[in-house]
Amino acid sequence: MDLAETTTVLQVDKLSCIRNDIELFCDLNFKLQSGQVLQIEGANGCGKTSLLRILCGLMLPADGEVKWNGVNIQHDRIEYNNNIAYIGHHNGIKADLSCEENLQFFHDLGNTKENIDIDDILDKIGLQEKDESLAGKLSAGQRRRLALARLLMTNAPLWILDEPFTALDPKGRELIEGYFDQHCSQGGMIIFTTHHAVALEHSQIQFLRIGHE
Description:
It contains six helices and nine strands. It is of the alpha/beta class.
C-alpha cells in the first residue's frame, strides 16, 4: 500500500463519552487527514484513553460518531481495523517469547508489509542485540521499543497510540519521533497522547484538549 497516493480522512462528529455516570467530554469534533498528527491533551482522568478506545472501535460513544472516509467505523469494522494500528498503555507482548518470536507472531497475524526482515526491524528500533532475549527479561524501555517496533511492520495508515513514549530514554524518544515524521511524510496519520514534549522535524502537530477545565 502506497500511503502517499491514498487520501484518507478520520472525522469525529459531536462525540460524547460518559463513564461511571460522569461525562468526560461532549460535542467533540475534529478531522484528521493524510500526513497529519494530532496530540490529545488533558488532565489525568479526563478521558484521553477512553477517546482513543472509541477511535479504535473498542468502546461506543455516548453520542456522536467516528467516520473513516465518510463511513461510520461501526458499519465496516473489518475494513477499519485493517487501517489502524493501536498500541495502548500495555505493550501487548508475550513475556515468554523472544523479541524475534514476538515480532514473528505479530507478522503472522497479517496486515504487515511484504518482505519483512525482523532482524532489520529490531536493528531499527535499537534491539539488534536482543533478538533471542525473552521479552520478560527486557527493561521497561526495551519492552516499549519492542511494542513500538510493530509500527514499522504494519500497513495501517492510522496509528493510535496511548503514551507511546512511556519508559523511553531521550534517545528512544528521538528515535520514535523520527519514525513519526517518516510515517506522516508517506501519507500516514497519527493520534497520540503523551506527557512528554514532542518535537517533529517535518510534521506539524495539532493539539486537541479534552475534559472539563
